[in-house]
Design brief:
CATH superfamily of the largest domain in chain A: P-loop containing nucleotide triphosphate hydrolases
Strand order of the largest sheet of chain A: 6-7-8-3-9-10-11
Mean pLDDT of chain A: 87
Order of helices and strands of chain A: EEEHEEHEHHHEHEHEEE
Helix content of chain B: 55-70%
Shape of chain B: elongated
Number of domains of chain A: 2
Radius of gyration of chain A: 18 Å
Helix content of chain A: 25-40%
Low-confidence stretches of chain B: none
Number of strands of chain B: 4
Strand content of chain A: 25-35%
Shape of chain A: globular
Largest sheet of chain A: 7 strands, mixed
Low-confidence stretches of chain A: 223-234
Oligomer: heterodimer
Number of domains of chain B: 2
CATH topology of the largest domain in chain A: Rossmann fold
Order of helices and strands of chain B: HHEHEHEHEHHHHH
Strand content of chain B: 5-15%
Distance between the termini of chain A: 28 Å
CATH architecture of the largest domain in chain A: 3-Layer(aba) Sandwich
Number of helices of chain B: 10
Structural class of chain B: alpha+beta
Number of strands of chain A: 11
Largest sheet of chain B: 4 strands, antiparallel
């Protein structure tokens, strides 16, 4: 489903974010990206939703080579995946309802279907009682649930999450991870960057470890599939 | 989402942005309104002067003053020459006594002055009624002015041409000043929209991440500029009408009334003014969206 072929990403001033990464992620997996700050986790995700382009190598998502994807087609690629961030990235002046239904709205989904989709999705994340609240009126955990609901409303095959629990306390973090786990059980591929060793071991199905841009470990839970030094692990 | 739904969405987002940042938006609207008002005043002045000149042109006279010792045959030759010119409808000979009577009728208070003269002090004159192209007549008048027996030529068309030049200059200055001010208005609107894109930069990023196309991300900002431009032009149109109406109620000399307050704009001109404001707004809305250094760079 997601394939990286010798992918490198070098930012200006020769800062290497990813170096010669080759990896294949199958449909339906729950993959956790690990590594210290600056290891390349966010860049890995950014390359998948085409917020960045690789300096070298090829990335194929669902059979589509992202290198040959015109800029104008990027929004259509992003609609096939849900993206969740540490800072929630919600539209502050819009209600929970408006945030969650924004994509269906601009896609021209009729109001009745929008309502059905939103109610179902918000119920799934446990926010059906906060439809008219603004993000600032919600806790961090609730805001992240809104972001997850927004990512799920278009029923994507793939959810990318960049440190989704980074701004949350341990209790809320576990709640969010349970939610991802639940989403994964229903067949969605999850690719989640996390620096929390406990959470990733408890919820992850496969662990990719990055260190200074290099893929240094690729483990099935409890079963190492690519033997490496594991440098940079927390 | 079809085009109308998209436009509705853009309009609601744009109006929301304008309401939230109404102080800074009001500045851009005021700049646009002032620009269009000044341009509109000059346009009105140019239009009214042109109309007044046309109306005065129909009353314009061409008079050839002759020496009183010219014989009837010599006057008849001149008259025949004039009647042969294309555009000349009629030539009326006014004798000295007839001229004196006219003077008394037109200026009764000055009639006593004429009592000092035993004979009429006025010369014989030929009044020419013409229509259409006066080019040939004007040429003939230039030639005849130096002929023996012709003391003077009075051609109203000359000063009307001067007035016409002033009207054209007013229109040209109006266009130039209006153009410069419209650029200023567009820049002012662009500044407000640029500020708006900066304020909402996180939302813009969020919208892009969930798959919104640039059409949906940029649309509200373009409409924001358009709304500001249209609001400015509506304000300018209202202010122009109020000024026109207010000045019309004042006691002003007839030539000022004719030259400046004869007619307000035609509906087409008013629509053009609105369109001009809308265009300035549209351009102002598009500028920040195309800047490489901005949020959309």
């Amino acid at each position: 489903m997601i394939e990286f072929f010798n992918v490198s990403k070098i930012y200006p001033v020769n800062r290497v974010a990813l170096a010669d990464v080759t990896v294949r992620i199958e449909r339906g997996q729950f993959v956790v990206l690990a590594g210290s700050s600056g290891a390349g986790k966010s860049t890995f995700l950014r390359l998948i939703y085409r917020a960045a382009v690789p300096t070298a190598g090829q990335i194929v998502v669902n059979g589509r080579n992202l290198g040959s994807l015109p800029s104008k087609k990027v929004p259509y690629l992003r609609r096939t995946m849900g993206v969740v961030f540490q800072d929630f990235s919600l539209i502050e002046r819009k209600t929970v309802w408006d945030n969650v239904t924004f994509l269906p709205k601009i896609l021209g989904v009729d109001a009745k279907t929008r309502r059905r989709l939103a109610e179902r999705t918000l119920e799934r994340v446990g926010l059906q009682r906060h439809l008219d609240s603004y993000p600032a009126q919600l806790s961090g955990g609730e805001q992240q649930r809104v972001a997850i609901a927004r990512a799920l409303i278009s029923k994507p095959d793939l959810v990318l999450a960049d440190e989704p629990t980074g701004n949350l306390d341990p209790h809320l973090s576990r709640g969010i991870m349970h939610l991802f786990s639940e989403i994964h059980r229903q067949g969605t591929t999850i690719l989640l960057a996390s620096h929390d060793p406990e959470l990733r071991r408890e919820f992850g199905e496969r662990l990719l470890v990055l260190d200074e841009g290099r893929l240094v470990a690729d483990e099935e839970l409890g079963r190492r599939t690519l033997s490496t030094a594991g440098a940079g692990l927390e | 989402m079809n085009v109308f739904q998209a436009l509705g969405y853009f309009a609601s987002e744009a109006i929301g942005n304008l309401v939230r940042g109404w102080r800074i938006s009001a500045l851009a609207v005021a700049t646009t309104a002032l620009s269009l008002f000044i341009g509109g005043v000059l346009l009105l002045a140019g239009n009214n002067m042109a109309r007044a000149i046309e109306s005065w042109r129909s009353d314009a006279q061409i008079v050839v003053y002759l020496d009183n010792d010219l014989t009837d045959d010599e006057i008849a030759i001149l008259t025949a020459e004039l009647l042969e010119l294309p555009g000349v409808d009629r030539v009326i000979q006014i004798g000295p006594d007839q001229a004196r009577e006219r003077f008394r009728e037109r200026f009764p208070d000055l009639g006593e002055i004429l009592l000092e003269f035993e004979r009429s002090p006025f010369p014989i004159s030929l009044e020419i009624e013409a229509n259409g192209d006066r080019g040939v007549i004007d040429e003939w008048l230039v030639g005849v002015s130096g002929r023996p027996g012709v003391s003077a030529v009075d051609n109203d068309a000359e000063w009307l041409e001067s007035m016409n030049a002033v009207a054209s200059a007013a229109s040209a200055v109006g266009l130039l000043v209006g153009g410069i001010l419209m650029v200023a208005a567009a820049i002012s609107i662009a500044s407000v929209v640029r500020l708006s894109t900066f304020v909402y930069r996180k939302e813009i990023a969020a919208m892009r991440l969930i798959g919104a196309t640039e059409f949906f991300v940029r649309g509200p900002f373009v409409v924001e500029g358009l709304v500001q431009g249209l609001a400015g032009s509506c304000l300018a149109l209202g202010a122009l009408w109020l000024a026109f109406w207010g000045l019309g109620r004042l006691d002003v000399p007839w030539f000022v009334r004719d030259a400046l307050l004869g007619f307000f704009m035609t509906p087409r001109q008013a629509l053009a003014l609105l369109a001009l404001g809308g265009t300035a707004g549209l351009v102002g809305g598009l500028i920040p969206l195309r800047e490489r250094s901005g949020v959309f760079g």
